[in-house]
């Protein structure tokens, strides 16, 4: 009898560690969920549900999930197949064309991407003339700043968001200024999703722990990158649904400040200890690289139930500003105003209390409920939380 | 005599500075300062004059500034920048020497560099931007300029 009881206890313990309580439908995990209720009420599970769907291997023929494949195949994900912000907001401000016109990574099926690919956010090389870097103990000239960067960052948007921008001509500054003139409110459709990702150089020995990307450098050599951070943002809610994921190794990386606030994941952990540092069991992550990623938290409101600002930071994507990082408040400042016909944007960082003696890597973000005065009585118009809109350039004559 | 005193005053042989210790900016060449434990962004500016040229021309007049800064998307790269501003009516040629540290496989290593720059009258140039150095270890630099 005692042995039976012990067996039952062990079985219950194994079960509790092997699966999670699911409230959402996981029967077709490659299908992107869209539910305001689930986003608001089952936020952590919803975040994982979106995570699995957008990290599903993409079809070879179109930027959408391939149900025939599984999460364990190391290939281009759905979000990687979406248009990058640099595809949408072109340097010459021209129409990016119909969805799917830009070559997406499926054409490079082995996911080998040139370092000069527009999918990566540019490094400000023009501000750094005569740039040198350490290589094999010597300073050598930097011909390609992206090659020298320790991290690569990219932003992608799905079809719903892309087409909203294109149909309204918001892909250049003229189009956005027209919105300002007409007073039309920018409101992305509920199906819109945006992703911001960060990669770091990894070794071959680390390949099995990361979602990887092979990048061809200017000299033809190939370099292996591992995904370290992923912001997932969906328009399920009027103020969007915000979730951020990190690779479990991040806090130990050189140059990473560590996780200054504990993770909050009630889906993987249960409600007792939301910082259990596990990935959820029973949703298909076991045995894949994705089990090495952690939900750091979700945001759906500016403040909590007693009015304290809600914070959420990714140690890679919000490096240097974790204590004052609030995705939702920061992005509420994505806006446009005009100085003559020149667009003006609100600053990303709060310098109102800047201390000149402070660590230069310590940046202060905006937190809490957005203030009306930021928008100068309507002179500056919000752009529905989409910071990438600030990448728009004037259309060349 | 007055001319000799002025010349002596201008003959700050070279500008050896450290980004850690602003006081070093005004000192002469012999004042090579050791890096301190922390190296926040610090301006190191001072009017300097280098040696007279071989043909007896008055020395070049210039100021220097060095700072740690951030660059890249979300400012996640640390860059050390040295600027030289000419206060001379002539074109000057500057040699900038840099000494710093970096980490390789957890071990601290030293690294140095030297850059040549041409600075036009009353112009400021970034004589160099260096990535990959350890800010906490600090860096030292020296700038020598002469008129062309």
Throw out a few tags for this protein.
heterodimer, A: about 400 residues, alpha+beta, eight-stranded mixed beta sheet, three-stranded antiparallel beta sheet, about 20% strand, globular, B: about 150 residues, mainly beta, Immunoglobulin-like, four-stranded antiparallel beta sheet, 1 helix, 8 strands, about 45% strand, disordered N terminus
CA-based gyration radius of chain A: 22 Å
Instruction: Identify the overall geometry of chain A.
Output: globular
Helix content of chain B: under 10%
Could you give the order of the helices and strands of chain A?
A: HHHHEHEEEHEHHEEEEHEHEEE
Any idea what the shape of chain B is?
elongated
User: β content of chain B, as a range?
Assistant: over 45%
Percentage of residues assigned to helices of chain A: 10-25%
Give the oligomeric state of the chains in this entry, treating copies of one chain as homo and distinct chains as hetero.
heterodimer
Q: What summary fits the major beta sheet of chain A?
A: 8 strands, mixed
Give me the Rg of chain B, rounded: 16 Å
Alpha-beta content class of chain A: alpha+beta
User: How many E-type strands of chain A?
Assistant: 13
Q: Measure the end-to-end span of chain B.
A: 27 Å
Nearest-integer average pLDDT of chain A: 88
User: What percent strand of chain A?
Assistant: 15-25%
Structural class of chain B: mainly beta
SSE topology sketch:
The complex is a heterodimer of chains A (397) and B (148).
Chain A: H1 2-18, H2 36-41, H3 43-54, H4 78-81, E1 83-84, H5 85-88, E2 112-114, E3 131-135, E4 138-141, H6 145-148, E5 151-157, H7 159-167, H8 173-182, E6 193-201, E7 212-216, E8 222-234, E9 241-247, H9 266-269, E10 293-299, H10 327-332, E11 335-339, E12 342-344, E13 381-382
Chain B: H1 2-10, E1 15-18, E2 47-49, E3 61-71, E4 77-86, E5 92-104, E6 107-119, E7 124-131, E8 140-147
Antiparallel strand pairs in B: 1-8, 2-3, 3-4, 4-7, 5-6, 5-8
């Amino acid at each position: 009898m005692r042995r039976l009881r012990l067996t039952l206890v062990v079985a219950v313990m194994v079960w509790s560690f092997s699966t999670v309580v699911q409230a959402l439908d996981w029967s077709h995990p490659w299908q992107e969920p869209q539910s305001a209720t689930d986003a608001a009420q089952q936020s952590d599970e919803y975040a994982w549900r979106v995570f699995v769907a957008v990290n599903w291997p993409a079809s070879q023929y179109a930027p959408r999930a391939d149900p025939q494949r599984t999460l364990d195949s190391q290939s281009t994900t759905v979000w990687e197949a979406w248009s990058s912000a640099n595809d949408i907001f072109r340097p010459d401000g021209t129409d990016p064309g119909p969805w799917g016109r830009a070559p997406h990574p499926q054409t490079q099926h082995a996911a080998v991407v040139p370092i000069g690919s527009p999918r990566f956010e540019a490094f400000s090389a023009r501000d750094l003339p005569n740039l040198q870097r350490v290589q094999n103990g010597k300073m050598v000239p930097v011909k390609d700043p992206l090659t020298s960067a320790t991290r690569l960052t990219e932003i992608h948007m799905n079809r719903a968001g892309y087409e909203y921008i294109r149909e309204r001509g918001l892909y250049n500054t003229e189009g956005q200024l027209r919105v300002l003139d007409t007073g039309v409110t920018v409101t992305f459709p509920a199906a819109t999703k945006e992703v911001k990702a960060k990669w770091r150089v990894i070794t071959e020995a680390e390949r099995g722990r990361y979602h990887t990307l092979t990048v061809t450098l200017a000299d033809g050599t190939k370099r292996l990158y591992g995904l370290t951070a992923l912001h997932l943002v969906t328009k399920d809610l009027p103020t969007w649904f915000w979730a951020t994921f990190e690779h479990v190794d991040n806090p130990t990386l050189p140059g990473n400040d560590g996780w200054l606030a504990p993770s909050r994941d009630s889906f993987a952990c249960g409600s007792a200890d939301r910082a259990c540092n596990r990935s959820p069991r029973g949703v298909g992550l076991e045995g894949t690289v994705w089990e090495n990623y952690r939900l750091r938290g979700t945001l759906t409101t500016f403040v909590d139930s007693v009015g304290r600002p809600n914070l959420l930071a990714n140690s890679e994507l919000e490096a240097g500003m974790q204590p004052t990082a609030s995705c939702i408040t920061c992005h509420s400042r994505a806006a446009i105003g005009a100085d003559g016909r020149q667009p003006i944007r609100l600053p990303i960082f709060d310098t109102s209390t800047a201390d000149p003696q402070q660590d230069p890597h310590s940046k202060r973000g905006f937190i809490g409920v957005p203030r009306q005065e930021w928008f100068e009585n309507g002179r500056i118009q919000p752009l529905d939380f989409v910071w990438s809109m600030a990448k728009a350039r004037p259309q060349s004559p | 005599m007055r001319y000799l005193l002025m010349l002596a005053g201008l003959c700050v042989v070279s500008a050896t500075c450290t980004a850690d210790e602003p006081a070093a900016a005004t000192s002469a060449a012999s004042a090579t300062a050791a890096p301190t434990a922390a190296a926040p962004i610090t301006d190191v500016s001072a009017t300097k004059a280098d040696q007279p040229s071989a043909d007896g021309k008055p020395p070049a007049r210039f100021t220097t500034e060095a700072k740690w800064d951030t660059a890249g998307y979300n400012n996640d790269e640390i860059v050390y920048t040295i600027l030289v501003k000419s206060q001379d009516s002539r074109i000057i040629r500057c040699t900038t020497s840099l000494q710093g540290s970096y980490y390789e496989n957890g071990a601290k290593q030293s690294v140095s560099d030297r850059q040549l720059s041409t600075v036009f009258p009353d112009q400021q140039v970034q004589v160099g931007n260096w990535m990959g150095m350890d800010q906490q270890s600090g860096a030292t630099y020296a700038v020598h300029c002469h008129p062309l």
